[in-house]
Structure formats: structure tokens, C-alpha cells
Design a protein that fits this description.
The chain has 117 residues and is mainly α. Helices cover 62% and strands 0% of the residues. Residues 59-79 are annotated as: Disordered.
Length: 117
């Protein structure tokens, strides 16, 4: 039996990942539009780096506090209090997690419109 070379397998894995990422992006974008039409522009606004700042708001929210001391927990708690509530329903988040896990494992999920609602 003749097996494909390493470069062929690497290319196929790369193509499969790209396709999976595109499907995931499309599914999340569709769910975002369905959840709240104003959510997509609000998420895009998180990518803008404000004047005089070095990082975007998304990067600031994504990065954990550098120090794990008691004094560092006060600014972290203040930052958490400033975060707006997530408008996406809990069922949508659970469906997105299932979808992400299935992409990681290579399992195809059934295409059901109600799984993102």
C-alpha cells in the first residue's frame, strides 16, 4: 500500500483546517446577526485601538492581570465590573462550544438552524 507523503498530508490538514475555520466563522457571524443586529458593529468596535493607547479594548479584556496578588485583584474586579453583559443567549454559547469542540475533533455536526437560535 502506498501512502501519501508528509507534504501532501500537511497540505490536506491545512486545507481542512481552513475550511473548518471558515465554517465556524460563518456560523458565529450568522448567530451574531440573529442574536442582535447591533452586536456585530459592537464587536468590531472592540478591535479599534483608541488614540493614545497601545492595545485594543479586545486585547485589554483578553489579557489577564499580570500580577495575581491581592492588590492586583482590585483593578481586575473594577475591569470586570465595567464589562457589559453578553447579549448572546446561553443556548447559543453552548452550541458554539459544541461546534468548536467538533471542529477540533474533526466531527461534523448536523446542520440544524435551531442549534444556533
Amino acid at each position: 500500500m502506498l501512502l501519501p507523503g508528509v507534504s501532501v498530508l500537511a497540505r490536506q490538514v491545512s486545507e481542512a483546517r481552513t475550511a473548518a475555520e471558515r465554517r465556524l466563522y460563518d456560523a458565529v457571524a450568522r448567530a451574531t446577526r440573529q442574536a442582535d443586529p447591533a452586536l456585530a458593529p459592537a464587536l468590531a468596535e472592540l478591535l479599534v485601538v483608541p488614540e493614545g493607547k497601545r492595545v485594543s479594548e479586545l486585547e485589554r479584556l483578553r489579557t489577564p492581570p499580570v500580577k495575581t496578588t491581592g492588590t492586583a485583584s482590585i483593578p481586575a474586579a473594577r475591569a470586570a465590573a465595567r464589562m457589559p453583559p453578553c447579549p448572546i443567549e446561553r443556548a447559543s454559547v453552548a452550541a458554539a462550544r459544541r461546534c468548536c469542540r467538533s471542529f477540533k475533533c474533526g466531527i461534523k455536526t448536523p446542520k440544524r438552524s435551531d442549534s444556533w437560535a
